[in-house]
């Protein structure tokens, strides 16, 4: 594992802590977690799509153009939600 990996995992940890501070411990069933994860994947998709194809960005006029930094942030949210889902699964089914 290189420095880049450690840096990204540190960002995921920070996002995971931010989510816990906002929402508290979440213990959803697997289908709900997958819906939450899919919602975050959709936001990542929208961020990169609107960055690469700004003419399709309907909200650019009100908030300015999108950037790959937003795509980066959304990917961190995807990873952090996946971690939260694993934690929840392990709490509910500790024997696997
Ligand atoms: Mg998001």
Approximate helicity band: over 70%
What proportion strand?
Answer: under 5%
Major beta-sheet overview: none
Tally of DSSP β-strands = 0
How is the topology of this model organized?
Layout: H1 3-23, H2 30-52, H3 60-63, H4 68-92
Bound molecules: magnesium ion (MG).
Descriptive notes:
The model has no long low-confidence stretch (mean pLDDT 96). The protein starts with a helix and ends with a helix. The protein has one domain. By secondary structure, it is an all-alpha fold. The protein is globular and about 50 Å long. Helix 1 packs across helix 4 (68-92) and helix 2 runs antiparallel to helix 4 (68-92). It is built from 4 helices and no strands. The longest helix is centred in the C-terminal third of the chain and has 25 residues, at 68-92. Magnesium ion binds next to helix 2 and helix 4.
Attribute tags:
96 residues, mainly alpha, 4 helices, binds magnesium ion
Quick structural summary:
The chain is mainly α and 96 residues long.
